[in-house]
Specification:
The complex is a heterodimer of chains A (494) and B (679). Chain A is mainly α and 494 residues long. Chain A has 20 helices and two strands. Chain A has a domain of 227 residues. Chain A has a two-stranded antiparallel sheet. The longest helix of chain A is centred in the last third of the chain and has 33 residues. Chain B has two domains: 574 residues, no CATH class; 84 residues, no CATH class. Helix content of chain B is 71%, strand content 3%. Chain B contains 29 helices and two strands. Chain B has a two-stranded antiparallel sheet with strand order 1-2. In chain B, strand 1 and strand 2 form a beta hairpin. The chains are: A mainly alpha (494), B mainly alpha (679). Chains A and B meet through helix 6, helix 8 and helix 11 of A and helix 27 and helix 29 of B.
């Protein structure tokens, strides 16, 4: 069998890095353990190289393993996102993990495994490969969420995540099994042709199978009502892991959703379209309203990320419900996903540094942070306003493409979803702006002194990359629009 | 780069030169002050003179450059435009509207380039002495450079968009400079007042630009001029509206009644700022805009003239009277500027393009001279009030001598510069048929002479009433005074009606180098009868002022308290304009306002409060009820089983996870049911 090694080179590089980290962790003496982090960073950077080579090459689509594994522009864009997000999370973790005195090697090993899983998802065009990818993404996160073994809340976070994760996996697997049952195929393109003309008796089963698969992925993207785990887990898990959960893991869920519904189930948009509509509307509304009343910054971001997932579903769901402009909706959701990843990682980096400065995760405890540490205050304002969608920060463009796609879809259901999104965007501004208000306008507690020690270099790098990207994309949105355009290839076939 | 099309070229009044190298690269002048600004910001603190070197250097280059252009234009007339497209938008109907930057070099802009560079350079040099030892010299010179640069961008603008950029830049720089001594709250308030009053007027300018841009499909002044000259029908439809909007914008910057209220307060800035602001930059911008858009008013929007002339006339007379009662020497000069701007605006509005801009030109010299002289005095006695001065001619002879020259020129005494330019305005008003306004102008000349006589008498004559021993200003301050005194005496000869100065012709010809003929009237010779009446009014004012205020020191202050019933209190209170503003605010207590207030408190607030309350309640319900406990409600049975099975302590943990899981499953089932039912 002819294997296109370049196509799977990113996965191979990450896998080799995982082994390297494992080996290094075994042989390195304790003071030198930080080399595992360096190794992880280098590995993730190297893995980007084949992506660039493939993007530059003239081969449009690389299909491996009889079409079960496909590397096209869609996969390239999202793999790039996963690698960069993973890179930023590793950078964010370095100082956080070092200060904790747990086993550093394991941490990066697990994180890289999860990244590897999400790389697989982006190329999976087959139920089995997809399932492996999804489990490889989520499995290590159960352990990472409980990584601070001595902290009871970390244990609680891990346990809740694990129990509900297993439940969702069960439902997902059930749905996949039914899909296989009615179609007799595992490859997406074959499932699609098999489902095109099912027997009338199999119709209810097809509907149930599709909805169960939807529920399984809705858990990954923490869409309401499958979001219950998110706030508790986010609060208890180490903050860099929370950042990873809210960005990469969520993005992986979205990608799995895209490839499944667009490639395998495209003809049954009448079933999953309304389902997505309901998930989008509920996630935005419940997530935003719950976020209004949060006093802890991480819980606030947890509900914010639930609401953002709702926003991301809007163009996707609007296009599906209308049955029109599917490619438009996909491009808009991907653009939103990429921008959200950057600004949300930035926001979490601010949370890490802010919690270190103020010694608390309570929003009220951050009063006057802008005066204690002006640079951090500015960054907090940048990321939170970007999340709210205020120009000229990147978030506005995400919101803009979202509304544009939803309105372009045109039907009454799509337009009503756009209206719900508009109301929610206004509600969201309130709690995002409140953070900036507390940081800049409230009086600092007596005795607070201007910060002198700078943040750890790796964290500063994360903040810098995210901030520059947030501002640049906000001013020159065309930079990212091309990524959205590239992903349309997913819908091009057939 | 963009050049005049052949068709447009054909409109040019006469064959104009393209000006060669200096016109082609005139943009250098627009950029240099900004370069200086950056250099000052980055390196200013390390320089011996705190960055003044850069500011002065930039303007010195500009002065040489603009002098070459000035001479070229005097001999042959120049018209040259250079523009780059920097962006474009689609407008209704599929047309594209382009935004351009660049520069226009013609008679009008060359005059302004030269004026800004010349007056700016002298004021900068003076400021080195005046600001010596100030706390923020570097910041001052940075903002000062910005001020001059923004003004050059404004006067060099080939289109309305760039003009607005420069216009706002001037506004910003003036805000920074007026508020230079921000430690004092009054100065901050003055800066805010200047900025806000200007913003009100800017609305007019921006709307005018939008109207013109969307009507013509371009923002270029040259195309606006050509369209107006050709009586283009599309433009004719909006000409009056656009003209009035532009005029409203000009009223703010050029301090026309009743938007003049910011200018006297703007005296809060350091004196060199006042000098530059009142002479060459900022307040001249409005008159310049009227000159730049003159073809619009001349050929299409002549219906607006009555209103504009009326406002100009009110300004020139009302502000002149206010200058009579001020004790602060800078405020005397400030109201004098407002009054002189009224002359300029009246002239341009009445159709006297050359007359108005010639007065702008001469006024720049003697007003800058007077402000710098006042600055030297203030520097010496450490007070702005004339009641603390007196007898300074013994201590500061050079300042005294130059101040008197400036005062005589401003008063319009033959044969100084102010005489010729004011006479030309009066002649234009007479020719255009505004006889009443012409007599107001003559009365204004009397008032002008009177308050200047008072200012000179109270400041330099009588005996010294202040503290300490005043000294003459250093040479770095007196040399600019002399530099300004010379043109204050002689500049008037540049435009004696009917006289051409050999190859360099005269001011009228210089200013006429525009893309279309301006169409204003030029007298063949001096109207000596009118000149005599104007001069007589000025001399009477001078003599009367002198007689009242110059005699011995003991009675000086008593005479200053001489109050004319009714008029004096009115002037003292600045025509109650501030009170009127307050009265408008207080009128909200009236019945109509009470209704508005009631609506505000009960209806709008009620709606807002109700919305806020509902959102909060909903949020509480969603978070507390649905998200955290709602599952309890729906699955009480399930969780009760869990409760029964588990111990109380474990219930908190495992119970909740079970609730979550229950919610999860129920969510999935509801989704399935929903699709099954609604499909």
């Amino acid at each position: 069998m002819q294997i296109d090694w370049l196509a799977i080179a990113p996965e191979i590089v990450v896998a080799v890095t995982i082994l390297g980290v494992l080996a290094a962790d075994l042989v390195l003496p304790r003071p030198l353990k930080y080399w595992t982090a360096t190794l992880a960073v280098v590995g993730l950077t190297l893995a980007v190289v084949p992506l660039i080579l493939m993007a530059a090459s003239s081969v449009e689509t690389r299909s491996l393993f009889e079409g079960s594994y496909v590397v096209d522009d869609f996969a390239l864009v999202l793999k790039g996102l996963f690698l960069i997000a993973g890179y930023l999370v590793v950078l964010m973790s370095v100082s956080y993990i070092e200060s904790d005195r747990y086993y550093q090697g394991e941490y990066y090993l697990l994180l890289l495994s999860s990244v590897l899983g999400s790389l697989v998802i982006a190329s999976a065009r087959d139920l089995i490969v997809l399932f492996i990818g999804v489990e490889l993404t989520t499995g290590p996160l159960f352990m990472l969420a409980g990584w601070r073994k001595g902290d009871i809340r970390s244990n609680e976070a891990s346990l809740k995540f694990f129990i509900l994760g297993v439940l969702s996996t069960a439902i997902l697997l059930w749905g996949m099994a039914m899909l296989y049952g009615v179609s007799g195929e595992v490859r997406f393109d074959q499932i699609r042709s098999a489902l095109a003309d099912p027997s009338p008796a199999a119709q209810p089963l097809v509907g149930l199978a599709i909805l169960f698969v939807l529920v399984g992925f809705a858990f990954k993207v923490s869409a309401v009502p499958f979001h219950f785990w998110a706030p508790d887990t986010y609060e208890g898990a180490p903050t860099p892991v929370t950042a990873y959960l809210s960005v990469s893991s969520k993005a992986a869920g979205f990608v799995a959703l895209f490839v499944t519904v667009y490639v395998a189930l495209r003809d049954r948009v009448d079933i999953w379209g309304p389902g997505l509509w309901a998930l989008a509307a509920l996630s935005m509304t419940i997530g935003n309203l719950a976020a209004l009343r949060q006093s802890n910054i991480v819980r606030l971001l947890a509900y914010s990320s639930i609401a953002q997932a709702g926003f991301m579903l809007v163009p996707f769901a609007a296009a599906s419900v209308a049955g029109e402009q599917l490619a438009e909706g996909l491009a808009a959701t991907v653009v939103y996903l990429v921008i959200y990843a950057l600004m949300n990682l930035g926001a979490f980096a601010v949370v890490i540094q802010g919690a270190r400065r103020t010694g608390t995760g309570d929003i009220d405890g951050w009063a006057g942070l802008g005066r204690i540490d002006p640079r951090l205050g500015v960054l907090a304002a940048v990321f939170f306003f970007s999340l709210a969608g205020i120009p000229p920060l990147a978030g506005w463009f995400a919101k803009f493409v979202m509304f544009r796609a939803a309105i372009a879809a045109g039907s009454a259901a799509a337009t009503s979803l756009a209206v719900i999104a508009a109301i929610n965007a206004v509600i969201a501004l309130y709690y995002y702006a409140r953070v900036a208000k507390v940081v800049w306008f409230d009086e600092a507690p007596a005795g607070a002194e201007p910060a002198t020690e700078p943040p750890a270099a790796s964290l500063a790098l994360t903040l810098g990359i995210a901030a520059v990207a947030t501002v640049v994309v906000g001013v020159f949105p065309a930079v990212f629009a091309v990524f959205g355009e590239a992903t349309r290839v997913l819908l091009a076939s057939g | 780069m963009w050049y005049l099309t052949a068709e447009e070229e054909a409109h040019a009044a006469e064959a104009l030169s393209s000006g060669g190298f200096f016109a082609e690269w005139a943009g250098v002048m627009l950029v240099l002050p900004f370069v200086a600004f950056l250099l000052i910001v980055f390196f200013g603190k390390r320089m011996r003179r705190h960055g003044a070197e850069f500011a002065i250097g930039a303007l010195a280059v500009n002065l040489v450059w603009s002098s070459v252009l000035f001479f070229q234009n005097a001999v042959e007339g120049i018209h040259r435009e250079v523009s780059w497209v920097v962006g474009e938008i689609g407008v209704f109907g599929g047309d594209r509207l382009v935004f351009e930057l660049g520069w226009v070099v013609d008679g009008l802009s060359i005059m302004m380039f030269w004026l800004v560079s010349f007056v700016g350079l002298l004021v900068f040099v003076y400021a080195v002495g005046y600001m010596h030892g100030d706390v923020r010299v570097t910041a001052f010179f940075a903002a000062f450079s910005l001020f001059a640069g923004a003004m050059l961008v404004l006067v060099g603008a080939p289109n309305l968009v760039q003009l607005i950029i420069g216009w706002e830049g001037v506004g910003l720089a003036s805000y920074l400079l007026i508020g230079h001594y921000w430690e004092d709250l009054d100065n901050v308030r003055a800066a805010n007042k200047a900025f806000l009053v200007n913003k009100v007027a800017d609305v007019g300018l921006i709307l005018g630009a939008v109207v013109l841009g969307f009507t013509l499909g371009t923002f270029r002044f040259s195309e606006l001029s050509v369209a107006a000259f050709d009586h283009s029908p599309e433009l004719a439809g909006v000409a009056v509206a656009a003209g009035l909007l532009l005029f409203f914008g000009a009223m703010g910057k050029s301090a026309q009644f009743p938007l003049h209220i910011w200018l006297p307060d703007a005296m809060a800035g350091p004196t060199p700022v006042s000098a530059l602001m009142h002479a060459a930059t900022m307040v001249t911008a409005g008159v310049y805009l009227m000159g730049r858009a003159f073809p619009l008013f001349e050929y299409l929007a002549s219906d607006t003239r009555g209103l504009m002339v009326a406002i100009g006339a009110i300004t020139l007379f009302a502000a002149g009277l206010l200058a009579l009662v001020q004790d602060d020497i800078k405020k005397v000069l400030a109201y004098s500027t407002v009054s002189q701007l009224g002359y300029m605006m009246t002239a341009v509005a009445a159709g006297g393009y050359t007359a108005g801009l010639f007065h702008l030109f001469t006024h720049a010299f003697f007003k800058a001279l007077l402000f710098l002289g006042a600055g030297a005095v203030i520097h010496a006695v450490h007070s702005n009030n004339m009641s603390d001065m007196g007898g300074l001619r013994h201590y500061m002879p050079r300042t005294h001598w130059t101040f008197v020259v400036g005062s005589l020129s401003l008063a319009g005494i033959f044969p100084l510069a102010g005489f010729w330019s004011k006479d030309e305005i009066l002649a234009t008003l007479g020719y255009e048929g505004y006889t009443t306004v012409m007599w107001i102008g003559i009365a204004g000349a009397f008032v002008t002479a009177f308050y200047m006589a008072r200012a000179v008498a109270l400041t330099f004559w009588g005996s010294y009433k202040g503290h300490g021993h005043p000294h003459e200003a250093p040479a770095v301050m007196t040399v600019p005074l002399i530099g300004l005194a010379i043109p204050s005496i002689f500049a008037g000869f540049l435009n004696v009606p009917g006289v051409e100065l050999g190859p360099i012709r005269n001011f009228t010809a210089w200013l006429g180098a525009r893309v279309v003929p301006m169409g204003d009237h030029h007298a063949e010779s001096v109207d000596w009868a009118l000149a005599a009446v104007g001069l007589a009014a000025a001399l009477t004012g001078l003599v009367l002022g002198w007689l009242v205020f110059s005699p011995d020191a003991d009675t000086q202050r008593a005479r200053d308290r001489f109050r004319i019933p009714v008029l004096y209190p009115l002037l003292e209170a600045k025509y109650f304009l501030d009170h009127i503003a307050w009265a408008i605010v207080n009128a909200t207590k009236g019945p109509l306002a009470r209704l508005v207030d009631w609506t505000n408190s009960y209806v709008i607030d009620g709606v807002v409060n109700a919305a806020g309350f509902l959102s909060a309640a909903l949020a509480r319900f969603v978070y507390g009820g649905l998200d955290q406990r709602g599952i309890d409600l729906a699955y009480n049975g399930l969780s009760q089983m869990a409760d029964a099975a588990g111990m109380a302590a474990r219930r908190l943990q495992t119970g909740r996870v079970q609730q979550y899981a229950a919610g999860f499953v129920v969510g999935a089932l509801v989704l399935v049911l929903m699709i099954a039912v609604f499909r």
